[in-house]
Design brief:
The complex is a heterotrimer of chains A (300), B (365) and C (531). Chain A has eleven helices and four strands, in the order ααααβββααααβααα. With 300 residues, chain A is mainly alpha-helical. The longest helix of chain B is centred in the middle third of the chain and has 18 residues, at 137-154. The chains are: A mainly alpha (300), B alpha/beta (365), C mainly alpha (531). Bound molecules: adenosine-5'-diphosphate and magnesium ion.
């Protein structure tokens, strides 16, 4: 039982990170119906930004309180990745909006390749390890919970709350949902569609940057190629939860996190990803629009 | 139903119901279409006509009811049990769509060749023999081009045979879709608003095409254009909010007061009087529809199947609020006999013109 | 840093003013994007700790270059482009007026002379101008040759356009022979020519043709049937491992295993397709992606059979239809049988023709199938699935046949790949490969065999060519490895080509039947499918 709870906590941590990334996928998909393949790499760029800021802080000051350091890392990473995603949307996706459906998918894949290789070229191909930032571990009834995990879950929860507020209670969120339903009509009614889409990309990137910072803090290492696997998992999570649905993305993220940690704990660590992907396939066979996705009505 | 009418009925729809969640799009509908005739299915927008087509052609599985197709060779099919694609292939029912569905990137000829898929597939030995150049694929292929040409000529499109379908003007696209359906070699052709959006000239051309088709194929026709309906159909079934309110020859239907009230229009003032008479509070009624109940078409007043909302969120058997417009036929009933039913708000759509032959919708450009 | 440029101001400002403003914006954005990643570099010191190295000079250079680029683009590039007719010429690459200005006889002659001179003095160059310049001159020579070839193509463009398929096949068939002949003359020995041809035949010829074949195979699924498959590499892997394992464990011949590999891949195509083909759009995409990853992860982790990440080595070579072999130790080695000198080039040339034959088989079958009911049903499915069902087409089996046929060709290519490498490992079957293949299909123009072949040549050949830029080392220092930039440039090229031609190189569609005349269908009518 203790072991199970332990795994549950690990899964929750992992799932939070996936969920944060998944929201970016799901929002972009919701609003312009494209798979933003570069999103995983945006996450990686966020982690790298956090890494560089971490090193800058380390070289400028003798010691910085951990919370402050994390906050600064997060904010800089959010700003930077937002700029990246904003630029990418403007350069690579906007000109193709409304054209051939696969065209933006291909530019997104191209951007993903370019981003990861850009980091490889500029920062080198090796793993970048950092000394542990947070190392406290609490032991409750034989279940060990690290402070890192607590931070991750709390930050995720706070961000989700903020986010939920933004999307459901502000005029920005309303504009987003309007664009989701019918972009042309929204534009006719005075919604600045371009701006709304840009902001959607920025929001997704900011969350991915947070995920990147947390990832760096949790694992203590990042490499240029680390965007792909979490990216694909998060995308899987978004689809599993029902792409286009925000709670779905979080739910999907948590599910993938749980599946992974449970499978590694009880079966084999080698096949944890196989398990996650297989469950995705199985779920989609029975629920073709994901768990919380709106079923697609085939109007004839 | 007598054995005799069974025989010459190509299509028999019995107690058909289709529910979408709590929305009853069709409620206990029964009618038949006779072989060699044009049967028209009319009714205001949202009456459930397209849904009937979707049930017949297998795109929707009806909630209840039976749809029988009697083939010319004596075979008979229960359409609600056949998989979607087998209905055209085995039961020989072809259809067109209200929103034209052509293969717009393929040429007209290709569109008509795709329609002959199953025949050609057999001739090509399920691809394998044809790929190796064995067997009669070549001949079958030439024959299929001939058939395509035949229908292109009938639809007056042969000059554009090698152009992409998406490049055709609207009226020609309609004709092409009919020609494509005919290339499947159907016994029953279901046409969903073929004259919608056509100009008078195109409309006339369509009539000729339909009369031509009628000589070999029975037709089930959804149409708003009353001139088309009155001119070419042999039998008319009128739907309103999913139930049948009239059924008979064009003449009898056009004089049926229920139809006039429901479809061809009651005066605004009249509706108003009805509304004030019966009060305008929201009507909430328990839905309880089954083919076993003794509701005969036209007498049932409990089928409140108005368009609740675009997205359906009602589970079956739930209470349903009727919004938008309530049945006008029911309003007529209410007016005539102070029926125990209460229509709600007045129709949002403007009631159509007053003369029985006018078009209720901007059908013509 | 939100930049909004009001269009009213644009019309008032002159292009140069506007360009200036735009350049400033671009510079600011570039500064923001690059400050952390180009300005600073994370390095490991001796005690393996991360430290930051500073590269402000590089940062400034990059930012200034971005600004200049933006400036010239807005000030001169854009007006120039809008003045040009966008109409496509036969080359499909440049607007006609621009092309005729670019390809001119005097320039052509200069290029030829330059190339000949540089070839003639090749060995003397380093002595004359030093190593550094010699590398640059060699590059210049390559450019001159490419320019001259492009001129010839441009001059004969009408003829080439009319006979593209025939000429293309002829060029592909003659390519290794030409390479060997030219290089033999150049080296003045046949052996030298054979040896020198290795790179051209293997790195360029075979490599490109493998991608051509894969992309043609995927084209059936994506281009014709409109089903978005992001895991195509899985079938490639199945084929590769089928040959690798069966060939090395049971010693079965390639010629037996080739169909087996294709059949196994097709089988997996059906296995995957059966449950997932009712999914639509992006759901199908993610499941196929997941399937590709599952296959790769199984290959990594099922160590008893696949030997894990270490891969399978010692995969037997293909024999010359069982008559001769390419192992110099064998008694019926081709050199011994034909009594010619030993060279590894024979095998490469043989492999070249083998993959060419396989690719042409793919093209032949695809063209043939398109004119048959299945092929038409695939395309109809891409156009409108509901209409297909209303015409009695069983969409499930139609999709399955598309999946299986595409997978089968992937399997063939996989078997060839493992025979060529002699070694396979899961490394070769990552998602990136699927992405590249898909990109080639889309860049080429969905459904167009010619476009796809051109796209493969440009994208794969282009990135291969970057390996040739070693001379840049002498300019940028020893640390500079042009190869590192390969995938960066590849990714950017994908974006640029897509922005430039969203419908791919060949956007039009060739109809499969005609009554009076065959007219290409413009890309604006074809749909891309939703599955
Ligand atoms: N797939 C569906 N899901 C939910 N409601 C539907 C669906 N198809 C049709 N309806 C509803 O059924 C009613 C009848 O529609 P329809 O048959 O298209 O009417 P008509 O063709 O007579 O204009 C409408 O209220 C429509 O909204
Ligand atoms: Mg309708």
């Amino acid at each position: 039982m203790q072991y199970f709870v332990q795994q549950l906590i690990n899964g929750l941590t992992l799932g939070s990170i996936y969920g944060l990334i998944a929201i970016g996928y799901t929002m972009v998909y919701g609003i312009i119906g494209m798979i933003n393949f570069a999103h995983g790499d945006i996450f990686m760029v966020g982690a790298f930004a956090a890494l560089v800021v971490f090193l800058i802080l380390g070289s400028l000051f003798y010691s910085v309180p951990v919370v402050l350091a994390l906050l600064i890392m997060m904010i800089v990473a959010m700003l930077l990745t937002s700029l990246y995603n904003w630029t990418i949307e403007k350069v690579a996706y906007r000109p193709l909006r409304g054209s051939f459906r696969l065209a933006p998918l291909i530019t997104a894949i191209g951007m993903s390749i370019a981003l990861s290789n850009f980091i490889q070229v500029t920062q080198g191909p090796r793993n970048k390890p950092i000394p542990p930032m947070v190392s406290q571990v609490y032991n409750i009834n034989g279940i060990s919970v690290s402070l890192k995990q607590i931070i991750i879950v709390i930050v995720t929860a706070l961000l989700l709350a903020l986010f939920w507020y933004l999307v459901n209670r502000t005029s920005l969120g309303r504009a987003q949902r309007a664009c989701e339903q019918d972009r042309k009509m929204a534009a006719l009614l005075g919604v600045d569609v371009d701006r709304t889409i840009s902001i959607t990309f920025i929001m997704g990137a900011a969350l991915a940057a947070v995920a990147g910072t947390l990832f760096l803090m949790y694992y203590g290492v990042i490499a240029f190629s680390d965007g792909f696997v979490p990216g694909v998992k998060a995308f899987t999570a978004a689809v599993l939860g029902g792409i286009g649905s925000l709670p779905g993305a979080v739910l999907g993220g948590l599910m993938i996190g749980f599946i992974e940690s449970m499978w590694s704990a009880y079966f084999s660590i080698d096949y944890k990803d196989v398990a996650a992907f297989s469950i995705l396939a199985i779920v989609l066979i029975f629920l073709p629009s994901g768990i919380l996705g709106r079923p697609e009505v085939e109007k004839v | 139903m007598s054995a005799n009418s069974m025989k010459d009925a190509i299509l028999q729809v019995e107690h058909l119901s289709m529910k979408f969640g709590g929305l009853v799009a069709i409620g206990d509908l029964s009618f038949q279409a006779k072989r060699g005739e044009i049967t028209a299915l009319i009714g205001p927008n949202g009456a459930g006509k397209t849904t009937v087509f979707n049930c017949i052609t297998g795109f929707y599985k009806p909630s209840e009811g039976m749809i029988t197709l009697n083939g010319a060779d004596g075979s008979s099919f229960l359409l609600e049990r056949l998989p979607n694609h087998e209905i055209p292939a085995r039961a020989k029912v072809a259809r067109t769509f209200q929103n034209i569905r052509l293969f717009s990137g393929m040429t007209l000829l290709e569109n008509l060749l795709v329609a002959q898929h199953n025949k050609l597939m057999k001739a090509s030995g399920y691809t394998i023999l044809g790929l190796l150049g064995i067997g009669g694929y070549r001949r079958a292929s030439a024959e299929s081009v001939e058939l395509a040409k035949h229908w292109l000529e009938k639809a007056d499109l042969v000059d554009r045979a090698d152009d992409p379908a998406g490049d055709l003007p609207y009226g020609a696209q309609r004709r092409l879709e009919i020609a494509r359906a005919m290339c499947t070699g159907p016994e029953l052709l279901c046409l969903d608003e073929p004259a919608a959006g056509l100009n008078p000239k195109e409309s006339a051309a369509l009539n000729t095409l339909l009369m031509d088709i009628k000589s070999s194929t029975s037709i089930l026709l959804i149409e708003h254009d009353m001139s088309v309906v009155m001119q070419i159909s042999d039998h008319v079934v009128v739907l309103e909010y999913g139930r049948k309110i009239s059924d008979g020859s064009p003449q009898s239907v056009r004089t049926d007061p229920r139809v006039i009230a429901a479809y061809l229009g009651v005066d605004d003032e009249e509706v108003e009087t009805v509304l004030t008479e019966v009060g305008d509070e929201d009507v909430i009624e328990q839905l309880d529809i089954g083919p076993d109940t003794a509701h005969g078409p036209g007498t049932s007043s409990s089928y409140l199947a108005g368009p609740v909302s675009d997205t359906i969120g009602h589970s079956e058997g739930e209470r349903v609020t009727v919004s938008k417009g309530a049945s006008k036929a029911a309003q007529f009933d209410a007016k005539a006999s102070v029926a125990p039913r209460k229509p709600t708000e007045r129709a949002t759509a403007k009631p159509p013109g007053k003369s029985p032959t006018s078009k209720p919708r901007g059908g013509r450009k | 840093m939100a930049v909004s440029v009001s269009s009213e101001r644009d019309t008032v400002a002159s292009p140069v003013q506007r360009a200036f403003r735009e350049a400033l914006y671009a510079g600011a954005i570039a500064l923001g994007l690059f400050i952390l990643f180009i300005g600073l570099k994370t390095d490991q010191n001796i005690s393996n700790q991360l430290i930051l190295a500073q590269r402000w000079g590089l940062l400034i250079t990059v930012v200034v270059l971005t600004m200049l680029g933006r400036f010239f683009y807005i000030a001169y590039g854009q007006p120039f482009m809008t003045n040009q007719k966008i109409a496509d010429v036969a080359t499909g690459l440049l607007p006609a007026s621009l092309a005729s200005r670019f390809f001119q006889l005097p320039a052509f002659i200069v290029a030829i002379v330059l190339a000949v001179v540089l070839f003639a003095f090749n060995s003397a160059l380093p002595g004359l101008v030093g190593d550094k310049l010699a590398g640059g001159l060699q590059f210049l020579r390559a450019l001159a040759v490419i320019y001259a070839l492009a001129c010839v193509i441009f001059y004969f463009r009408a003829f080439i356009h009319a006979n593209f398929t025939k000429l293309g096949i002829a060029a592909l068939v003659l390519y290794p022979i030409l390479v060997v002949v030219v290089l033999s003359i150049y080296a003045w020995s046949i052996m030298g020519g054979l040896q020198g041809s290795l790179k051209w035949v293997d790195n360029y010829g075979i490599q490109i043709l493998i991608y051509v074949m894969l992309a043609w195979g995927l084209n059936i699924v994506v281009g014709l049937a409109g089903l978005l498959d992001l895991g195509y590499v899985a079938f490639y892997a199945v084929g590769a491992y089928a040959y690798a394992l069966l060939g090395s464990h049971y010693g079965l011949s390639f010629w037996i295993l080739l169909p087996v590999a294709g059949a196994m891949a097709a089988f997996w195509g059906v296995m995957l397709g059966f449950p997932v083909l009712r999914l639509r759009g992006d759901y199908l995409a993610i499941v196929t992606l997941a399937f590709g990853e599952i296959i790769r992860l199984v290959l990594i982790n099922w160590r008893d059979v696949t030997n894990g990440s270490a891969g399978v080595s010692g995969i037997p070579k293909v024999t010359f239809f069982g008559l001769m072999t390419f192992n110099s130790t064998d008694p019926n080695y081709i050199g011994k049988v034909l009594d010619i000198a030993q060279s590894s080039a024979y095998y490469k040339i043989f492999l070249y023709y083998l993959i060419l034959a396989l690719a042409l088989l793919t093209a032949f079958v695809t063209t043939r199938l398109r004119r048959m009911p299945v092929g038409r049903a695939w395309e109809a499915l891409r156009e409108d699935e509901i209409a297909c069902r209303s015409l009695g087409i069983n969409t499930t089996t139609t999709k399955l046949t598309a999946f299986a046929t595409g997978a089968m060709f992937g399997g063939f290519a996989g078997a060839f790949f493992s025979a060529r490498q002699g070694f396979v490992s899961p490394e070769s079957f990552v998602f990136l490969e699927s992405a590249i293949i898909l990109a080639i299909v889309v860049l080429g123009g969905m459904g167009s065999l010619v476009g796809i072949a051109v796209a493969a040549m440009v994208m794969i050949g282009g990135t291969e060519a970057l390996r040739e830029l070693d001379f840049l080392k002498s300019f940028f220092g020893k640390d500079f490895t042009p190869e590192l930039y390969r995938m960066l440039l590849f990714g950017m090229a994908m974006v640029i080509v897509m922005l430039w031609k969203p419908r791919g190189f060949v956007g039009s569609r060739e109809p499969t039947a005609f009554l009076r005349e065959r007219k290409a269908v413009s890309g604006s009518f074809t749909k891309e499918g939703h599955g």
